[in-house]
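Raw record, unedited: DNA processing protein
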Amino acid sequence: MCISDPLLKYKIALEIIPHIGSITAKKLIAYCGGIGEVFNQPKKALLKIPGVGEIIAREVYNQRVLDRAEREIEFLNKYGITPFYYTDPDYPERLKQCEDSPILLYYKGSASLSHQKVLAVVGTRSASDYGKRHCEELLRGLAQKGHSVLVVSGLAHGIDAAAHRNAIKSGFPTVGVLAHGLDMIYPSANRELAKEMLGNGALVTDFITGTQPERNNFLRRNRIIAGLADATIVVESAIKGGALVTADIACSYNRDVLACPGRTSDKYSQGCNALIKMNKAALVESAEDIENALNWQSVSVKGNASQQLTIFRDLSKEEQKIVDILRNVEKESIDTIAYSSGLSMPSTSAILLTMEFDGIVKSLPGKAYALSKSYFPQ
C-alpha cells in the first residue's frame, strides 16, 4: 500500500498540534481556505482566527509537526492503514454529522463504517454474567430476526469485549474504537480478539502512534463510539462511568440511547436504571425492544416449518452491479466483485453481508459468493 495524498501530512499535522480540538481544527481550515493553506499562513494571521492562541499558532508556524506527520505516513504505508479525512466519501456519514468529529480517522479492517444499521454497545469493564448473557441474547436475537448490524464498542474488558465477541458469533461485523494509536492493542489480553475482528470488522482511532491509553483519551474516543452509531445501548454500568459518558454524548448528538435494566441492589445496574428512570434511555430487554425503539422491521418471515427467505425487494444500484457480475458465473471472489463493481472493499463487504442476510447471495468457501437460486431461480 502506498498513500499518494499530497495533503495527508498536513491533515495529520493539524490533528496532533497540542491543545487543538476538532472544532478549532475545522475552523482553521475554513478560515484559511484549505488544509494546506493552514501551514502557509504567517503567525500574525493565525492569531486573528477565533480560538487560535499563541501555542497553536506557534506550532503551526514552526512546522515541527510536519516532520512527525511524515513519520506517521511511513507507519500507515507499512501496515496498510487507511486515513479517512472528514470530507472523504468513505468517512462515516453518521460521524460526519457531529460537530466535534475528528478531521482524520485511522482505519484498518474490512467493514464499512457507514453500514445501514449501526449499534454502539457499551458498559462496565467489571461485567457480570448477567450482563454478558444479556449482551449475547440481544445480538443473537437481532441476527435471528435477519438484521444486518454493525456493532461498535471500545475493545475494553467486560461489556465491550462481550459485544465484539458476540457480534462475531452472530455473524455481524464489529468495530473497535481505540483510545490510542494502531501500533498497540490495549488491553493486551484482547489482542487475539482484535485480530479476529479484522476479518469482518475494523479497528479505528483518531490517535497517532505512540499515544498512550490515558484516561482522557478514553473519554475523547467515546464521542466516536456514539457518533458512529444510530443508537447506543448501555448493558451494565455503575452510577458513574465511561458508558454513561458515551450515553450523554449520544444524547447530545440526538441519537437514541437504550439501557438494560437490572436489580436495584446490583452496583453495575444502577447506571442503567438511572438512565431509564430519568427518561434518558429506553428500556431494553430483548431484540424486539431494539426493533421498536429504532423502528426496525424484522427482515425474516417465519412459516410453519423452518425460517423462510426475506420477501423480495428492490435492489440498490450497488446491489444490482453485484447481481450483474454474479449472474453469468457459478461463483466469484469478493476481490473480483469489488474490482469489477468499482466499489471499495469495505463497501463491497458490507453490501454482500446485507444481501446474504436477505437471501440474495450466498457465501462460499474461499471468500467467494454466488447468487441464491431460491432468490434467482433458473
